[in-house]
Amino acid sequence: MIRHIVFFSARDPSDRDAVFEGLSLLVGAVQPDLIEVARNRKGDQLGNDVDFVVYAEFADEGALAAFKADPLYERSIRRVRPLRELRVAADYEPETAARRARSS
User: Fold this and answer.
1) Sheet holding 52-58, edge to edge
2) Is the model's pTM score more than 0.90?
3) What is the C-alpha to C-alpha distance for residues 5 and 2, in angstroms, rounded to an integer?
4) Is 96 helix (H, G, I), strand (E, B) or coil?
């Protein structure tokens, strides 16, 4: 499994709704195992630069590649790119992620 997380901010606060609508196109793209597009609650004490989060889970590299090849993915990019300030992406495999065991 691959977890795909992307953070975005709008260049101009007045464009936030348009950015969210553009990112929401991704929900209709070739379906990953899970996809969420959400507004940041901006509740962190140290930094709230991020306006939106896209979170998706894919079975494998092929599924992620199919998602990125979907026409809706390209349409989303064309709408969002001119309006965004920040884009930070990360892909990782949960089985390789460091984990701390929790004691009950």
Assistant:
1) 34-39, 52-58, 2-10, 84-92
2) no
3) 10
4) helix
More confident residue, 102 or 66: 66
**Looking at residues 10-34, what average pLDDT do you find?**
94
Structurally, the chain folds into a number of domains equal to: 1
DSSP collapsed to 3 states, 3-64: EEEEEEEECCHHHHHHHHHHHHHHHHCCCCCEEEEEECCCCCCCCCCCCEEEEEEECCHHHH
Contact 22, 37 (CB under 8 A): no
Cβ atoms of 39 and 51 within 8 Å: the answer is: yes
Residue 103 lies in a domain: no
**DSSP per-residue string spanning 52-95:** EEEEEEESSHHHHHHHHHSHHHHHHHHHHGGGEEEEEEEEE-GG
Cα end-to-end distance, the chain, whole Å: 27
The range of the structural domain enclosing residue 81 comes to 2-42+50-87
